[in-house]
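My hope is that you will study the record closing this message with an eye to the fold:
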Amino acid sequence: MVKKKLPVGIDDFKEIIENNYYFVDKSMLINELLDKKSKVTLLPRPRRFGKTLNMSMLNYFFNIEDKDINKNLFDNLSILNTDKMKHHGEYPVIYISLKDIKVSNWTECLEEIKKLLKDLFNSKRYIRESLDESEKIDFDKIEFLNETGDFVRALKNLSKYLFKFYGKKVIILIDEYDTPLVTAHSQGYYDEAIFFFRNFLSAALKGNPYLELSVLTGILRVAKESIFSGLNNINVSTILDNNFNYFGLTENEVESALKYYELAYELEEVKKWYNGYKFGEKLVYNPWSIINCINNKELNPYWINTSDNALIKQLLDKNDKKVFEELELIFKGETIWETISENIIFDDLNNTNTLWSLMLFSGYLTYEEMKISPITELKSYSLKIPNTEIKSFFRQSFIENYTKGDVHFYGTMMEDLFLGNLDSFINKFKKMYISAISYHDAGDSEKYYHHFMLGLLLTLGDKYIITSNRESGYGRYDIALEPKDKRNFGLIFEFKIGDKNSIHDKAKEALTQIDEKKYDISMKNNGVSKVIKIGMAFNSKDVAIESKID
């Protein structure tokens, strides 16, 4: 039997249905939206979890344009058996996506928004003749990118024009509403962007007499004070809530897909790689990764290639002791408890808790439990890395961050360390270190170099139990890596700070300290017979290393 094609990279609902691609029915999202009857619904979910496909489905369901043709798209879906089919094709729809507005400055951003609105108005040009003369002038100013066009109120004005043409209120769908804001923050023009989008969205969604309902998707719930000020009619459902759970794939849906494509034997491995996300009370899989895994018949990290590592880099740049201690825990498969804010305030990104919130809502972390403080009533969540795919992303990001992207060189360097080829390891480390450390970053604090080394070594968590600043023997070592396979070398690092003239002596002093304080005793008591001891001394971009094997 010829199998259905997989919709790799296709998020247009009509194209998937008409071309008989493999499709998982999420049409009851429509049912829940109409049951809830919220004027504005915001649905933040991680990227590549089906947001755009669901928004496309809503567009084809509600849109009055081509309603008779589009009705056939829902023939075999669950929504067909509900009373909500009476809403099919009953509304004018404004549907835009902001996902591609990723530019380096506000001038370019505004130009991209204007072009998007120009295309939107052009697609509705058939209504122009129903407008009065002043409305036609305003319509044309948007379509022809006139400087005096009212782009801030473009969505509100278009909803008015559509209402005038059809005599029916309008549904507004905005996909990836927060992409321009996330980009603006990282590129340094957030103030201009938030000022525009606050007015742009408020005009369309707040007190708009021509609005039937609106749905917005994104990754983050940007704080109401920042963008949804005064919008009291908004219903927000995040991954922490138990409603609107039509994003991602359930285990039954994944199992059915694997069985259909005759890959059922890989279910447990697939679960380990791509499961682990928790949306409300549901455990879900990443659909983008599942589709690509089935298509390639290979378990690989697929989701990580669809995004940059800006959030990880922000976390690493904190150079904070508590952050690194918590990263140690999650790399070991443990959980960390953090207070999570559902409202992201970009001005507050220096707050580590805000970064953990960003990591959770963006899909880099998931949660297991929630508890409420009886005193502060703040909610905290137990966070962890959801699966092997994301763990590999963390590992890759750490390597790229600490080696300036030379992943292959890092791999050979760590192989030398693992095998005990110390001369080769030291030579490669010194070469890597010169390019990885800048004079601006390096300081005279041992903490900086300790965190640099810890970040570099955390990627070895599959093979070692990694600890830092723990007691052993007669003192506290800086970093120890105890091998999970006791036949391999254990590793102990001690660090010192020195000036250019003393760092070689300081490195010898660090190595001697490992011996004298018997830092290896705990490891040897646990059955590790061979231990590599490394003393390092730093002075800005200079490093001296002494080592031995016992």
